[in-house]
Structure formats: C-alpha cells, structure tokens
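Ops channel
N.P.: pipeline sanity check, posting one input/output pair.
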C-alpha cells in the first residue's frame, strides 16, 4: 500500500504519470504452468490480489487528478475574475463612457463571453483600451473574432502594442495653439486671443523698437 501511495504522490506532483498502462499487464496464471495444484492456487490468489490493488490504485489516481483539476480550475477562475475587475477599474478611470460602451457591445454581440477574444482582452494589461476600441469598431471586433485562436492572439498583440504606447505630452513654450489659417501662435505674440488691449499695445511697441534696432 505504501508503494502505491508513493507512486500516486509522485504523479500528483507532476514528476511522473503512472497509469495502469505504465505497468506491465497482469497475466492470469494457468494450471499447466505449475507442478502442483497448491502452487497454482497460490499464484491465482496473488494475481487476484494484485488485480484488486491495481484497480484501487487507478481509482485513487483518478480521484487525485479530479481534485487537482478542480482546484486548478477554481484558482484560474479566481485569477480571471481579478484581472477582469482590474480592466473594468482601469476602463472606468480612463473612459467616462466605459460602462455604457462595453454594455452595448455585449448587448449587440460585438463582444461575447467565453470567446477567445473575450479572454484575450481580459488577460491583456491594456485590455480596457482594446475593449473600448473594439466596442466602438464592431466591424474590427467581428473580423478578429472570426479568426482561429492563433490569429486572434496575433491581432490582439498588434492592438496591445498600439495601445501600450504612452500619449505624447504637449510641449510647453513657444509652440502652442493653432489658430485660423494654420498660423502658430507663440506666448509673446500680440495676436493671441486672450491678450488685453494694454498688453497688446505694449507688445507691439516692443516689437517695433526691436525691428528698428532700439
């Protein structure tokens, strides 16, 4: 019995996989192979004992495997829920319309639960941005959703690269607001819309003195 438990423990740890097929098959003893009937009976008793032990061994192995699978599934589900909550929180913080957009996408079938695309979005660190984008581009979501699993993850990888880039910050200083005609307005430009008349006159006079070399 100890040998059986040791073997099952190793299988549970993933060090080896011992099933009935890993062991040599048991062969029922034949009377002709023994000199005496007593030896035959003893061999038959041993055979039946070994057969019962193997059956019990296999049942225990299946139960351990079932328990391990259930435990792994529960842990995976817990992790999935955690990631989904993180994506939702990030989406709500970044997009004011996140809840409504995503809900509409599920309602009209743009996004569907238990799909390769669905799980890929949840597992992506920028999944909230991908979900928001695809919800607003249903034709793109439909195209990706029809791809085989490998294709889905390839397209998600492209979107992940796209949405992982940090938005460029506006440069402060000389290059600011674009006004009519495409002219760039600088902070000291007298044509700025937010400047007072007094400041306007002062800036124009300063500019005129600089032009004359004073």
């Amino acid at each position: 019995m100890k040998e059986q438990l040791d073997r099952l423990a190793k299988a549970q740890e993933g060090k080896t996989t011992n099933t009935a097929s890993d062991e040599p098959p048991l062969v029922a003893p034949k009377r002709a192979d023994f000199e005496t009937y007593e030896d035959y009976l003893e061999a038959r008793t041993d055979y039946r004992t070994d057969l019962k032990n193997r059956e019990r061994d296999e049942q225990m192995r299946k139960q351990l495997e079932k328990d391990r699978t259930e435990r792994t599934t529960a842990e995976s589900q817990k992790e999935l829920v955690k990631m989904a909550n993180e994506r939702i929180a990030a989406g709500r913080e970044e997009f004011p319309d996140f809840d409504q957009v995503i809900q509409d996408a599920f309602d009209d079938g743009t996004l569907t639960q238990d799909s390769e695309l669905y799980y890929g979005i949840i597992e992506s660190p920028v999944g909230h941005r991908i979900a928001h984008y695809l919800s607003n581009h249903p034709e793109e979501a439909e195209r990706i959703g029809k791809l085989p699993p490998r294709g889905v993850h390839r397209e998600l990888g492209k979107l992940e690269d796209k949405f992982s880039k940090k938005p460029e910050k506006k440069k402060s200083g000389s290059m600011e607001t674009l006004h009519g005609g495409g002219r760039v307005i600088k902070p000291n430009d007298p044509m700025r819309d937010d400047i007072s008349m007094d400041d306007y006159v002062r800036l124009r006079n300063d500019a005129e003195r600089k032009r004359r070399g004073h």
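N.P.: looks fine end to end. Residues 180-212 form one domain.
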